[in-house]
Amino acid sequence: MKRAFIICGPQSSGNRLLGAILVRAGCWGEGSTNQPKHISEIPSDTEKIVWIHPPCLDTALTDLKAVEFNITIIIIIREPEATCRSMVKAGFYPDLATAFNERIVKIQDSINTASKHNCKIEILTYEGLTMPMLKLWLTRLGLLTNNLENPLNLVGQFAPDFISNQNSKHYVAF
């Protein structure tokens, strides 16, 4: 059976790192925002794929199951205080209470959708993400670890200044 690793989290920006790690560990896809939009965009001979935030998780899981993918949903739980403060500062939410609530709702939605489709669920945080931890975790997922020492090349990491400037305002000190 084919394997699919769907990366979910309250916001997708930080999940590109994990996407790049999974691609380096042997998955088809990109560790960037240049993701497939439809199942038909995934090569039929692909054994393992990584997909960051499909446009509609529920529909994507139904379609992946139809082409016999065994799916693991990886839910990224990022540090809440700085994450929510950044979302408020960026204007995504009017206040911290709303940001905290929406963050929890998005995490719950991902877990509920994964459970509804009988997907395996992995919950991961970036805090304490180390090479020894990755080697143990990726092996448990059935992925390779021999390419992790090489630098990760994220598609879009050399984006024009206006994009990096846009992103940097989301992570300012308070």
What descriptors fit this protein?
174 residues, alpha/beta, Rossmann fold, four-stranded parallel beta sheet, 6 helices
Secondary structure layout:
Blueprint: E1 2-8, H1 15-24, E2 48-52, H2 57-66, E3 69-76, H3 80-89, H4 96-116, E4 120-124, H5 131-140, H6 161-168
Parallel strand pairs: 1-2, 1-3, 3-4
CATH topology: Rossmann fold
Query: What's the pLDDT, averaged over the residues?
Result: 81
Choose one word for the global shape.
globular
* Largest beta sheet: strand ordering: 2-1-3-4
Structural class based on helices, strands and sheet pairing: alpha/beta
Instruction: Please report the first level of CATH classification, the CATH class.
Output: Alpha Beta
CATH-derived architecture: 3-Layer(aba) Sandwich
Task: Give the tally of structural domains.
Answer: 1
Largest sheet: 4 strands, parallel
**Whole-Å distance between the termini?**
48 Å
Helix content: 25-40%
Oligomeric state, counting identical vs distinct chains: single chain
The run of helices and strands is EHEHEHHEHH
The CATH H-level superfamily is P-loop containing nucleotide triphosphate hydrolases
Q: Figure out the total of helices.
A: 6
